[in-house]
Amino acid sequence: MAALGWLTPRRRSATARSVLAGEASAEAARKSSQELAALAGPATPEEGPGEPEFPVVGDVEAAAFFDLDNTVMQGAAIFHFGRGLYKRKFFERQELVRFAWQQAWFRLAGVEDPEHMQDARDSALSIVKGHRVTELMTIGEEIYDEYMAERIWPGTRALAQAHLDAGQKVWLVTAAPVEIATVIARRLGLTGALGTVAESVDGVYTGKLVGEPLHGPAKAEAVRALAAAEGLDLARCAAYSDSHNDIPMLSLVGHPYAINPDAKLRKHARERDWRLRDYRTGRKAAKVGIPAAAGVGALAGGTAAAIALHRRRH
């Protein structure tokens, strides 16, 4: 959908669309964070295991930016969201099988497949079209408890908490819908979230995006726009990600960290002496993208069960 638009001369260029997506995400993030700050009795963050090794300096002109998928949380938020929507009968069983296969690929390969991610976003847009934003926010709270809460990496959570303890703001930066990202940020006690902005009119989704998905260069543009609005010095900020797709965002800040990195990011980080942390159990530091045997078995079993269920029904 969006990819074909990039090939049309009359449409915005990819760079302009990235800037538009980044600025829209930054505006939405600031608005949602102000609303969260105004709420009485914010959620108490879950405690992380011990102090993180990375030093965090208390600096009000610094902030931390965390990628979500496979950095803060195991797997991809959009796929977990899809599971929750299926449970609530937003779409048919064959869509669930596709979501299961895409999630299996993400977990087995340890890297993002652009076609899978684009397919998931297109499906999500068509599914939510005509629904109210407030409805999806409420459902997002339920889906977080059902599928996401137990998948938060404790190590990364401790890093985020260290920034918060130092008096800094902490933002999620993700291609997931900004509404879902905001729910996750609030539940973790973070400042807010930068995410993909879906167009809505009078509080109802139109099925279109503002700009493009917040992925790759668009993430960097969102961070840049938010830093300008918040008066942050990017040279004093930190960013965390698992994916080489986020190198533009990581390169913006003075303190980049590779968390559970894919092979390309690990190589890039080592060449530039960036800090690395890997919280995935059952992996040697040099092996990236090969899950522990138990994880493979459980994942394969879950995917096989979904496919078998689909076949029985058809």
Helical residue percent band: 40-55%
Oligomer: single chain
What spatial form do the alpha-carbon principal axes imply?
Answer: globular
β-strand amount: 5-15%
Q: Please trace the helix and strand order, writing H or E for each element.
A: HHEHHHHHEHEEEHEHEHEH
The parts where pLDDT drops under 50 for at least 5 residues are 1-13, 40-55, 283-314
Major sheet description: 6 strands, parallel
Task: Round the mean pLDDT to the nearest integer and report it.
Answer: 75
**CA-based gyration radius:** 19 Å
Termini separation: 29 Å
Counting H and I runs of at least 4 residues, what is the number of helices? 12
Provide the spatial order of strands within the biggest beta sheet: 3-2-1-6-7-8
Number of strands: 8
Helix and strand content put the structural class at alpha/beta
What would you note in describing this structure?
With 314 residues, the chain is an alpha/beta fold. The strands form two sheets. A six-stranded parallel β-sheet has the order 3-2-1-6-7-8, sandwiched between helices. It is globular and about 45 Å long. The N terminus and C terminus are likely disordered.
